[in-house]
Amino acid sequence: MQELTKIKEAAEFIKSKIPHVPEIAIILGSGLGILADEVEDKIEIPYSDIPNFPVSTVAGHAGKFIFGRLEDKNVLLMNGRFHFYEGYSMKEVTLPIRVFKMLGVKKLIVTNAAGGVNTNFKPGDLMIIKDHINFSMANPLIGRNIEEFGPRFPDMSNPYDKELIEIAKNVSKDIDVPVVEGVYFMLTGPNYETPAEIRAIRKLGGDAVGMSTVPEVIVANHSGIKVLGISCITNMAAGILDQPLNHEEVIETSMKVREKFIKLVRGIVSKM
Ligand code: HPA
User: Fold this and answer.
1) All domains of the chain in start order, with CATH
2) pLDDT value for 82
3) Given 13, 82, 175, 268, which residue has the most CB atoms within 10 angstroms?
């Protein structure tokens, strides 16, 4: 089946289930699915019901959309994302973004768990992503360009929308939930990095490292969706502390920050 047909079918299905256009889509990272509990008048759509949709496999990722109201805005939450390391193609990983576009989404908040590369960071910090480095050696836009979405050679000079970053920083001050700012560096995973890789990432300008987000942000930019990115620094990256890394620590830290994460995202959504 043609890629565009697949996207349209998935979008039509979701459209038939929801009463309003979602202005804002929010992708919830590892351990951050808790935001779904805050949504009012919830309509849940499991990915497994949606035509042409892949199904998420990682522990801590539930695999459904939640449509509803948050801070009086129509939002579409994505609880559970698709990762390249799971074996999905870059097209599958980013299919939801194109579906968002067809649903009329104008703004996207992407969240993730990430390792702190910047030694001024500490576990539990929330980082506003100001830019990223795509080190996945892959790109979701490779292949025939779908002109309906955007140009062959899209501009990426404002990948994380400056206005949304300003809003996030102002909200952070207003509600006294401090944030840090930095560059998100993507590797595919699934292994955590080596200490030498982390030193290299730091030299290349990365402040946080993770295994998601960048493909979605590329596709969002391609189709003119404005993006805000928030990383939860769940651990210091490899070699910084004298301890091994594991997924449990990642989930544990994201659980600890959930109160301030919810406060921050709610505050931002209310001002968007
Ligand atoms: N590295 C890569 N991805 C991650 C990390 C990390 O240290 N922590 C959470 N996601």
Assistant:
1) 1-271 (3.40.50.1580)
2) 92
3) 82
Strand ranges in 32-179 using DSSP code E only, listed in sequence order: 40-46, 64-70, 73-79, 107-116, 126-134
The torsion angles phi and psi of 237, rounded to 5 degrees, stand at -65, 165
- Which residues have C-beta atoms less than 6 Å from ligand 1? 113-115, 192-193, 209-211, 234-235, 237, 245, 250
**Torsion angle defined by CA atoms of residues 263, 265, 266 and 268, in that order, rounded to the nearest 10 degrees:** 120
Model confidence pLDDT, tens digit, residues 5-18: 999 999 999 999 99
Active site residue 222: no
pTM of this structure: 0.95
Separation between Cα atoms, residue 137 and residue 9, nearest integer Å: 30
What type of residue is 159? P
Query: Which of 137, 240, 144 has the alpha carbon at shortest distance from 197?
Result: 240
